[in-house]
Structure formats: structure tokens, C-alpha cells
Design a protein that fits this description.
The structure is a homodimer. In chain A, α1 packs across α2 (about 15-20), α5 (about 70-85) packs across α12 (about 290-310) and α8 (about 160-170) packs parallel to α9 (about 190-205). In chain A, α11 links the parallel β8 and β9. The first copy, chain A, has helices at about 5-10, 15-20, 30-45, 50-55, 70-85, 100-110, 130-135, 160-170, 190-205, 220-230, 245-260, 290-310, and strands spanning about 60-65, 90-95, 120, 140-145, 155, 180-185, 215, 240-245, 270-275, 285-290, 315-320, 320-325. By secondary structure, chain A is an alpha/beta fold. Chain A folds into 3 domains: about 5-45, lambda repressor-like DNA-binding domains (434 Repressor (Amino-terminal Domain)); about 60-155 and about 290-320, Response regulator (Rossmann fold), CATH 3.40.50.2300; about 160-290, Response regulator (Rossmann fold), CATH 3.40.50.2300. The longest helix of chain A is centred in the C-terminal third of the chain and has 17 residues, at about 290-310. Chains A and B meet through α4, α5, β2, α6 and α11 of A and α4, α5, β2, α6 and α11 of B. Chain A binds a DNA duplex through α2 and α4.
DNA sequence: ATTAATGATGTAATCCATTACATGAAAGGA
DNA sequence: TCCTTTCATGTAATGGATTACATCATTAAT
């Protein structure tokens, strides 16, 4: 593998001059430029980024930490991140944490060892103090999920009002007994969506009861299980269900259909996220759409600003969500 | 940021000794070891990987090139790759090429600039010669799609026999007019699946006609469009359809159902890949399952072997696929 | 013609860690 | 006691680029 030395020797100039040519420094004569370029061509020289990076102390790498890439919701966000990253000469190191804290810490070493210049957390597993501590030393942005008071930038949507709006819509359709399929975790989105759900019920004068909430794990099967639980209480099955993920909503619909119920005829279901499959299912899912790609883009922009030192104080950005009305919701018939 | 020099100074030893401690070299006395460790602790020293990598000329990074991460089929493979990579201390650089050759080349620079030690191609966009040339210099593995005669290792499934088996299954159900939803590209999988489809028809004494093949782009909507084309020829609609992707199969089913047909009552549909959503749809999709995670694992193992120099000749690995019979296929009723 | 300014290029330090080789001390052997 | 090993540690070169500073030649200014 040829080095800059080899090029210099071949072109009969010093390494400094070769470096100038590579980096398009203006103070290189036409003649020399050509000589050097020719030597580069002939040797098929490619600058070794390891050397350059060490000298410049930059790597143009950023960490993207997410629970799992197999979740289409996250993969779309990654696309947004990647787009902005590329436009700015950055590459992303993808890190599936599987929501395991050791794995997350393992990946964070890449930040501490200066192999990456910043990190975007989709759903941090480490606790708030650890995150705060980290952000004191390195550029960090949270995307979607975030921790309040962590003094770390984030970009997300207003989960409270999104849930409120979704439930309000169901109420508007005449539903009085509205169940929720949530998850058992402490994500801010989970907490806020539950609050929004409750508030919407209260504001409409409907009774709220913990009994109306079943928990899953965001997945299809857990949606089925939750629906079964609703069906279990014979005479008191909700006429509408608000699920905090599309996959769970689809699972619930599946279960209802299998039990001879019509969706939305007998029961309405609303999801969250608007993953690709939401509009593929039969019935197509009414859901809250998050601007996934933009969430990713904004997160990356924010991170870049931090890396460049353009901003020092943490910033919070809320993007617009949208209630997308499709086929899985309808007027209450009872 | 403290460097190894700072640690050495603080511990009153040379940098060589500190390096030995960091790298667990056996020839360090108990006393010195403790002194150094304490200095490391106190300074919160983390070795700068840029320096280390330059010296060792290693980066423990590999490139994973795929058309798009949003395709769940690919994201599962990535999981497999990541698993094995991590187990071996490697990290992956994810590269969405969007099937654009310039983007792919852009990413390949990371290989040529020695920032990554190898690459796994999911569906190369560059041509065979370029790929061959590349593989002469760098460790490279193809996963799923591959180019014959490129003299590059690959791990995949036998697409010909998988398609053959799928169509044979439909024939066994009594279907005589079987359509195919394919794609317009030159992927080996596309070609071989078409061959398998043809051969199965021929072996059963059924007529093949180009007219029976509609093309899409692997996506849901293109499946709908293809199905519409089948429905267009009124009196000659197939009684079964073999799609080369699950999303297209689901799209087709959606279209058939919207046109008042029952699946599988009136028409059977079979997909390919067994993505997560295949078993979520209603009806659940009969499909050919590819061992996605293992494909990824094997590809990474193969790449590691190349990086380590354990193998020099390209190797081909074929993993087992499986025909998964679910709800979208049934006996032919005409 | 002399000096100052400008432009092109080179020399050498630097980024940070690893490691071949050298050195000195302690231990073992004759 | 003297020589050879062995062990622990240090010195300095190394990996490949960037860049501050120095140098020299040329051009412009007086």
C-alpha cells in the first residue's frame, strides 16, 4: 500500500506538498499539482484515514443506539439520520442494544475512545445520571424517547397531545368504553400517552379505570394477548382500543377478527407510529403518524450543531405528528 | 483528555509499561500494575483508538452495504451480521446505497481508505468486474444476492429449488394456471426464481407463458398493481400466484380481496422471505422462509475468515430455506 | 539597484499508542 | 564468586498523515 511518502518520492516533492495537493490547498503551482496528481494516479494512492484522523482528531463517525433495527419504526429514523450524516461527511455506526445496558455501555466505549464524535440515543437504557454525565463530555442527542431533566437535547413529538387527540377522535365517534394497550416500561412516550388517554377520557366525562389498560411489549403477539384479555370480560368489552404501537394494534385486530368481531364494525382500533405495514393491513390502520425520517434528520442536525460547537445549551424540538384516519375506526354502534 | 504519557508520568513509569498494562501483557510486576491502574483510574484515562488503530493498522470495522435498511428482510440479516461481528470485537458501518452506484462507491472509499477491514454486500450495484477487482484487494462477502464467476465468496439459499418447491406445492393443490409476480432486475435470485417457477410448470406439463409473469419492485403497492393486471384479463385470471417477495404477495392479496375474491378460496397466494409481517397478515401468508439471521451470521463468519487470512479461495455456502404453509394457499376449486 | 512582499516548497514536530530492542537487576548454576 | 538466564522496565522507532515554521526564489516597490 503506497503512503504519502511514496507519492512524494515518485513526484520528487516533499510530503507536505503532496498533502497540500490532496487537501486542495491553493498554494501549489500548476506544474507541481500535475506532477503529484500523476504520481497519485500511477501508484493508485489513497490517503490512509487512520493517519489523517489521528492527526486531525476527527473520525466523522457517529453512534446510533437503538433497541433493535428490526423495528421498522426505528429503521426509518435511521434513514433520516443517515441522510443528514452523509450530506455532512459523517458515517453512522449502528448499535443494536437489545435494550441491554451492558451492550449499550459496550458501544459507548466507542465514544469514550474517541472513535466516534457523538451519539444519538433512540431509547437509552442507561439511567439519567449516566446519560447526563456522558453529555457533559460528549455531543449527545436523544431522539423520540428522552429523559426529562437530563440536560440533554432531544427531538420528539408531543406524545401527550397525540394520545389525547387519538382518544378524542374515538370519543367523537361515540365510543364510551375505550381500552388502551400500553407497555410496561418507563419511557416518556409511554407515560405521556397514558396521561393523554386519561385526560381525554376525563375531559369527556368518561370513567377511567386501570382495568381498561392492558400491557404488551410493542409486538404483534403481545397485541393479540392484550386483546384476549379484553375479550375475557364478557359483558364489558370496550368498543374501541387505543394501542401505543401499530404492531400491537394489528395483533389486537387479528384477535378480534378471529373471535368473530368486525373491525371497525364491532370494535374500533387505533395504533401509533404509522409503520409501513399500517397501510398494508386489512383493515388499514387508523394511527398516529410520527415524522420518522424528519425526526432522524433533526436529531442529526442537532448533533452536528453540538459537534461544531454551534450550540452549548441543550435544545428540545417537537415535531408535528398527525392522526391518520384509515379503516380500522368507525362509529360506535351500541 | 489524558494520554498515555500523562498516565506514565503520574504513575512514574514509561509509556511502554502503561501500554503493557492496558494490553494485559504478562510481564508486569504486581506493584507496577497497581500503580498504573491507579493512575488510569484517577485520570479517567481511555486509550485513544485512533492512535492504536494507526499503529496496529486495524480498525475492527466492517462495511455492510444494502439497498435500504427499511426492508425488514435486510434488517434481520444485519442483526445476524452484527451478532457475530460483536462477538469478535468488530463493529459495523451501515450503508444504505439506495441501489445507487455512486452512493455505493462513496461508501467503498471507506474500504479503500482502510477505515474498514472488509465489506458484506447484500445486493451489489457495482458491476461484476468492479466487484472482482475489489475482492482482489479487500476481504469481501456477498450475502443473498451474488454474482456468478465474480470469484467472490457468498452465502445464500438455492433460489431455484425454493421457487420450484413453492410452485410445485401450488400444483399439488390442483392449480393449473399459476401466475408469478417478479421484479425487473438482474439479481440472481430473480433469475433463478423465475427458472424454478418455469421448470416446475414444465415438469407438471403445464404451459408457461411470459404473460403469466407480472413485475413489481418488491413493495406492497407494486403487488397491488401486479394483481390488478392479473384481474384485467377477465376470463383468464390465475387461480394461484407466486410472488417473489412477501410485501408484493400481501399487496396482491389485498387487491384480490378488494375485488371480492376470497384468499385462498378463489385464489391462492404464496410469498417469499417470511418477513415478520407475513404471519401478521390476514390471511397469514404461505411463504418461503429464508434463514435471515443465519445468513447474516455465516456471511460475517466468512468475512472474518478472510480477514484473518484463514481462507484464500472464495467459498459458496447455501443455507436451507423452508416452505412455510399458512393460510393464503388452498386447494384449487375450479 | 536595493528592499520588502509574495508565492512555492521543504523541514520537522505532532497526533497517540505499540513494540523491537536495550538495559539493569535479581536469581540460578557451576 | 563469576557467568548466564530471566524478569521488569525503559528508550526510541514506528504507523501515515497534517501543519507551523523556515527557506528560497521571484516580483513589486522605491
Amino acid at each position: 500500500m503506497p503512503t504519502i511518502q511514496d507519492v512524494a518520492r515518485k513526484a520528487g516533492v516533499s510530503v507536505a506538498t503532496v498533502s497540500r495537493v490532496i487537501n486542495n490547498s491553493p498554494s501549489v503551482s500548476e506544474t507541481t499539482y500535475r506532477k503529484v496528481m500523476q504520481a497519485i494516479e500511477e501508484l493508485d494512492y489513497k490517503p490512509n484515514l487512520l493517519g489523517r484522523n489521528l492527526r486531525r482528531t476527527e473520525t466523522r463517525m457517529i453512534l446510533v443506539l437503538l433497541p433493535t433495527i428490526s423495528n421498522p419504526f426505528y429503521s426509518k429514523i435511521v434513514k433520516g439520520i443517515e441522510r443528514v450524516a452523509r450530506e455532512n461527511g459523517y458515517n453512522i455506526l449502528l448499535c443494536n442494544t437489545d435494550s441491554r445496558v451492558e451492550t449499550e455501555r459496550e458501544y459507548l466505549k466507542l465514544l469514550k475512545n474517541r472513535l466516534s464524535e457523538g451519539a444519538i440515543f433512540m431509547a437509552p437504557v442507561i439511567d439519567r445520571d449516566e446519560l447526563s454525565e456522558l453529555s457533559r463530555k460528549y455531543p449527545i442527542v436523544q431522539c423520540c424517547e428522552y429523559m426529562e431533566e437530563a440536560h440533554v437535547s432531544y427531538v420528539t413529538i408531543d406524545n401527550f397531545s397525540a394520545a389525547y387527540k387519538a382518544v378524542q377522535y374515538l370519543i367523537g365517534l361515540g365510543h364510551k368504553r375505550i381500552g388502551m394497550i400500553s407497555c410496561k416500561n418507563n419511557y416518556i412516550s409511554t407515560i405521556q400517552r397514558k396521561e393523554g388517554y386519561k385526560k381525554a377520557l376525563e375531559d369527556a366525562g368518561l370513567v377511567f379505570s386501570e382495568d381498561l389498560i392492558k400491557v404488551g411489549n410493542y409486538g404483534f403477539k403481545s397485541g393479540i394477548r392484550a386483546a384476549k384479555q379484553f375479550l375475557a370480560k364478557k359483558d364489558n368489552v370496550p368498543t374501541a382500543v387505543f394501542a401505543i404501537s401499530d404492531s400491537m394494534a394489528i395483533g389486537a385486530i387479528r384477535c378480534f377478527k378471529e373471535n368473530g368481531m368486525k373491525v371497525p364494525g364491532d370494535i374500533s382500533v387505533i395504533g401509533f407510529d404509522d409503520i409501513t405495514y399500517a397501510s398494508m393491513y386489512d383493515p388499514m390502520l387508523t394511527t398516529v403518524s410520527q415524522p420518522q425520517v424528519e425526526l432522524g434528520c433533526e436529531a442529526m442536525e442537532l448533533l452536528l450543531a453540538q459537534i461544531r460547537g454551534d450550540i452549548k445549551e441543550p435544545k428540545s424540538i417537537f415535531l408535528d405528528y398527525e392522526l391518520i384516519i384509515r379503516e380500522s375506526t368507525g362509529l360506535c354502534k351500541v
